[in-house]
Design brief:
The protein is of the alpha+beta class. Helix content is about 55%, strand content about 15%. Helix 1 packs across helix 2.
Length: about 130
């Protein structure tokens, strides 16, 4: 199981790099400009890949990026198989990566709690101060 996990993790990273390169240099769809592939998750049998992307903009911009990925799916899958020389190329499913927005939201919540005095500001430990000297 560990070897499968390690191989999948390596393949996921390689797939992410290849897909990002394709987006940047090969795919000429304006709906996919300024879109970033953030994470690739392979199924255990490597027959299915979920690709998470991030894009700056409103819901309309996210929808446009999704439409762009739908149009470029077969091209990207074919190029992925050719570039990586995979025996079986997984089906590709594209999803918006909302982790950045969630992180931003949590930062705003903490900021508000600090401003209202509900949460005290972080105080550095003495150990941390000693490490930076």
């Amino acid at each position: 199981m560990s070897n499968t996990f390690n191989r999948n993790a390596r393949l996921e990273g390689e797939m992410r790099a290849v897909l990002a390169e394709l987006l940047h240099h090969e795919v000429n769809d304006p709906r996919l400009s300024e879109v970033t592939v953030s994470v690739v998750r392979l199924s255990a049998d490597r027959s299915h890949a979920r690709i998470y992307f991030s894009v700056i903009g409103d819901e309309e911009r996210v929808r446009q990026a999704g439409d762009g990925f739908a149009a470029a799916n077969s091209f990207m899958r074919r190029e992925l198989g050719r570039t990586m020389r995979l025996r079986t190329v997984p089906s590709l499913e594209f999803h918006r990566d909302a982790s950045y927005e969630y992180g931003d939201h949590m930062e705003q919540v903490f900021k508000k709690l600090h401003e209202e005095g509900i949460l005290s500001p972080d105080n550095r430990d003495e150990d941390d101060e000693g490490e930076q000297e």
